[in-house]
Amino acid sequence: MGVRPVRIRRSTPDDGGGCRLCGGQRRRRRACNELVPHGRALAAAAALFLVAAGCAGAPGARAPGTDEPDPGASQPAVTGGSDTAGLAGYELPPTSGTFDYQLGGAYDELASSNRPVAVDVVVRDSTAAPLAGAYSVCYVNGFQTQPGEAERWLGEHEDLLLHDASGTPVSDPAWPDEYVLDPSTEDQRAGILRILGPVVTGCADAGFDAVEIDNLDTWTRFDQIDEEGALALARAYVDLAHGAGLAVAQKNAAEVARLAADDLGFDFAVTEECAVWSECAAYTAVYGNHVLQVEYPDALAGAGMTFQGVCALDDRAPLTILRDRRLVAAGERGYVYEAC
Hints:
It is a single chain. The chain is built from ten helices and 13 strands. By secondary structure, it is α/β, with parallel strands linked by helices. Strand 2 and strand 3 form a beta hairpin.
């Protein structure tokens, strides 16, 4: 099944303590339908039990390969138990090296004028394999259906989809082949997790280091979605991923970065076009250097910006790249890659 080009989510129109999240609070591809191996299944079941029974503590992060807190992770700003991530068995991505965003096609090295360049941090679709020797992030669409899966969801799980006033399932206007999931009730969240939970744990089984959960912001774009239910599903994904040994990336939605880190337990961020939207600081203020930033030529041109200008910004992430909008594989027509 082909991978769709990246989509940009905004809560505004686009031109081109407590256990306060307990029991029902505040994006890309299903990869695995098989049962998770026994060890992963136990971890997943434990995480889901904690979500259903009450708020579980969200472990945080340590510097990759060390037992010490990462000074670049803005530790005081992230309050989700960041000093326990090493014990929990997951690490944050490196904040230096070569980063690539490969949702449209996987490849092992970057071409250069002199010699191939190894990739240190990569994001790939959950249907792809992780890159050996690199910190690999697995893309999962946690709040909408995947292109090509409409028949399955409509035929078997229509009760888990958002419906409009007439009872018709709601699709994303920008991506009409993707239906919006409705996590508003406990039963609906449990149903969604039965389907997408194995995708998350499947990322761990495949050897990924982290998972990127896309479409976190559907509750800001569709008024019918209960905010607390959406946040409860997000927290469930985080707990499930942590239980499987994965760090968890917030995808876009700068307006909820503080909540995503402090209350939901997200560990780092993957952001698209934050320079264009002047929102990079919203991520770095929360996640420190643990932000993976992707910009696109068409958006920069529309904003009268250049990638050189992005690289000169004080608030841009250490790992900032320019990619073509379709994120095609190296060597394919239209491929673009630059790094700051």
